[in-house]
Amino acid sequence: MRIAFIGLGNMGGGMAANQAKAGRQVAAFDLAAAALDRARSAGCAPAGSVCEAVRDADAVVTMLPAGPHVRKVYAEEILPNAPKSALLVDCSTIDVDSARAVADMARDQGFRFADAPVSGGTAAADAGTLAFMVGCDDADFADVETAIQPMARAVIRAGDHGAGQAAKICNNMVLGISMLGVCEAIALAEKLGLDPERFFEIASKSSGQCWSITSYYPWPGPVETAPSNRGYEGGFATAMMLKDLKLAQQAAAMAGAAAPMGAQAEGLYALFDRLGFGTTDFSGVLQMLRGRLDELHG
Fold it and tell me: 2-161 maps to which CATH number?
């Protein structure tokens, strides 16, 4: 299978590498020369442009920063140059309206399209164990699953076009809110004289158990792979969590849904971001709640 992979950032680089590791021919493109060099080292063939990358592709996978980028790249570079037989899969996290607009553009020009945002962070992108939430025509799902299989541990059809993005922003709203609850609890436990590592032993086996505790505990020690053990570097940047929470609030406003906890979470991550910690893992908000920002590198 010939894969065109567009967007080789923190997530896309590892994802493209796993496509190459699976024995697929990967034509990769990014605006950053360093990203193209890493892709070459991982077995991909760097392309000089999006147009060149997609020209002979069986499937095109995109991983771009935001909705306007996705709309522009598809309208101006992918749809005019990819073969009509190519399956188009956008793995970016964008607003639902943009996903549906691109799906309509693709359909009007005879393409099959899926929005397939991911969950799992950079570690899962590198390991090929991402969870994909897919919005597509039911008839196309099997081909979408085949195209993204080397990057995935789970591929779930959420519904029609746009449903993948809806699932992603709702899921990340849960994650953002739950992480703040865990961080507040750790900060309180510490003030009450309870060792945060002992609190982990208790909370991970009782009613407070959640992914933010068992897989991503924001206190160093208990979860070896958590960014808290790397000075909150890597992982899921606060600015990216903030972006997802803004998308959730925009979607809630348009749908007339109440999301007050999401709004509060957005406000706290926005404060952390304004303090200079946008590139810090979002679990580093613990140090803000502890009043220990001096322990972070902004």
Answer: 3.40.50.720
The CATH homologous superfamily for domain 166-296 is N-(1-d-carboxylethyl)-l-norvaline Dehydrogenase; domain 2 (1.10.1040.10)
Q: Which of 21, 84, 168, 205 is catalytic?
A: 168
In this predicted model, what pLDDT tens digit does every residue of 73-99 receive, in sequence order?
999 999 999 999 999 999 999 999 999
Q: What are phi and psi of 137, to 5 degrees?
A: -65, 140
Return the residue matching tokens 């029609």. 160
Closest listed residue to residue 159, CA positions, set 87, 100, 85, 241 = 100
Cβ burial of 208 (10 Å; 0-12, 13-18, 19+) is: middle
Q: For residue 86, which phi and psi values (nearest 5 degrees)?
A: -70, 140
List the chain domain ranges.
2-161, 166-296
* 168 is known as an active-site residue: yes
pTM over 0.85: yes
The DSSP bridge pattern shows strands 130-135 and 118-119 to be antiparallel
